[in-house]
Every structure is written in structure tokens, then in C-alpha cells.
Amino acid sequence: MKFSLVLPLLLVAANVEGNLDLPHPLALASSFSHIYHQLDKINIGNCSLANVSISLNATKSQLPVPSTNLTLKYVALGRGTQNYSCPSNASSDSKTTVKPKATGAAATLFDASCIASSSLALLHEIPALISTTPIGSLAFMATLVAQGTRSTNLIIGEHYFDTDGVPIFDMGLSGSKSWIAASKIASSPAPKSKSKSKSCDDVPWLKLGHKKGKGIQEVYRVVTSQGDAPSTCAGQKAMIQVDYAAEYWFYG
Questions:
Q1: Does 99 score more than 60 pLDDT?
Q2: Is 36:150 a contact under the CB 8 Å cutoff?
Q3: β-bridge mates for residue 185, sequence order
Q4: Is residue 89 part of a domain?
Q5: How far, in Å, are 187, 190, 223 from residue 64 at the CA level?
Q6: Which CB contacts under 8 angstroms, 24+ apart, belong to 11-19?
Q7: Of 57-66, 140-149, 228-237, which range is least confident?
Q8: Phi, psi (rounded to 5 degrees) for 59
């Protein structure tokens, strides 16, 4: 099945750092080549989301369900950083009690519609897989997959915060004019991770609503992996970037 080829490709990128036999770029190319040629006649983009629905029952306090008048427009995997700041002029002693302040996030959005339409269980495994994968490796992989499958670009959008601190989701990289400046409707702590090897906690799950934009009315950030701030500013730089990944579901 076509969705099953996506996970091996992600694993290739995720394990590049562990390949000690070849330099990094050569290791990626060598690992990718035997998979790439299998994708020639497969299209893994633009799958229907008509029968796909979001599951919100994994958290103790469930997020509100999507509004009934909306339909699912995109399912994406976001990979980027959650950003925080610490006071640069604080003493070392005071930093032990000061918590980092959230200053926004930045992420690349990868098309996950085919995975969502084929296997939600597989989709939910991927954020933990890619949260520590170098973003350059993922972007390179997505470009090659799109070329090899005659698909549209699998990098479909970007997420960032504007100068007023408002979260923006822009799907322009998909060729769409859809975008949203969002505001938080609800938040729920992420479920406890089964992995004991993580260096930080997972950022909360969110439901976001529409402030302005086009084509998107509600956004969910769910199945998050990493991204939470250090507990205090002790030993931290003034600006902190914490790697994370998540599923993003867009309704309009």
C-alpha cells in the first residue's frame, strides 16, 4: 500500500545520524536510493479526507470537537521548534526560579493526507519519530519523494508567529491561498509519553480558532512530541529553541 512507503522514508532520514560508514549526505543518498526507485508509479499526495475524523480522547481533558459546519481540509505533520526566552540580566541564583517565557514557534508543514486516510495508527507514530530528525533531512526527503512519485510538493505550508505574537498557518506552499491567523480556544496537557528516553516533555494539545484569514476556520495541534520548555532558566541561554513535531488538523 502506498502509505506504507512513507514510514521507511522517514526512518531513513531519522537514522542518517547513526550511519557511521559514510559521510552524512552520502549516507542519506545511499539509504534512499533503493526505496526511491520503487515509487515511480505511485502518487502519495492529494488523498481524500472525506472519511477521516480526528480523535481527541487521548487526553484527560478532551478538546472541543470541530464545529459541525466545517469540513477537514488538511492533515499535516509539523516539524520545527518551540521558542522561549530567559532574562539575560538575571543572576544565576534567580534563574533557578524563573521559568522560560514562550515567544512563539516555527515549523514546516508536511502533507499527511494519504497517511491519515489510510492509517491513523501509523500517522500517530510519526511525530515521535521526526521530532529529533534534522529538518533539512526531512525537507530533502520530501522533495525527492514528490519527484519520484509525480506528486505535488509534500511541503504544503509553514507555521510561525507574527510580530504581534499571533500564530499564523500559511498553506501557500501547496498552491492554496488558505491561511489563518489563530487564537487559542482550548488547551489540554499532552498524554504521558511511553518513551522514557525523551529529554523534554511534549507541548500541550490545542484547539485554535479564527481571527482572520481565508479558507481555514479551526486548527488542532495534537499528538505532540517534545517541544516543552525547560523547567527553569538555570543554565539556559537568553533565547531557547526546543525541537518538536505534531499533527496539525485544519478545518474550514
A1: yes
A2: no
A3: none
A4: yes
A5: 9, 15, 15
A6: 11/129, 12/141, 13/130, 13/133, 13/134, 13/137, 13/138, 13/140, 13/141, 14/129, 14/130, 14/132, 14/133, 14/137, 16/134, 16/137, 17/134
A7: 140-149
A8: -95, 155
Distance CA 239, CA 49 (A): 39
105 pLDDT higher than 90: yes
pLDDT of residue 118: 83
Report pTM: 0.83
Give the residues across from 160 on adjacent strands: 168
What are the C-alpha distances in Å from 238 to residues 104, 157, 202, 233, 241?
Answer: 14, 29, 21, 8, 10
Q: For the chain, how many structural domains are there in total? A: 1
Q: In the structure grid, which three cell numbers stand for residue 131, read together?
A: 521530532
pLDDT per residue as tens digits for the range 19-32: 445 455 555 455 44
Is the pLDDT at 93 greater than 50? The verdict is yes
Domain annotation covers residue 50: no
Residue 197, all three cell numbers: 528516553
Distance CA 77, CA 222 (A): 10
State yes or no: pLDDT of 81 exceeds 60: yes
Look up the domain containing 73 and give its range.
Answer: 2-44+69-251
At which residue does the C-alpha cell 499535516 appear?
Answer: 76
Q: What is the mean pLDDT of residues 47-61?
A: 93
Q: Which residue has the cell 530528525?
A: 133
> Does residue 55 sit within a domain?
no
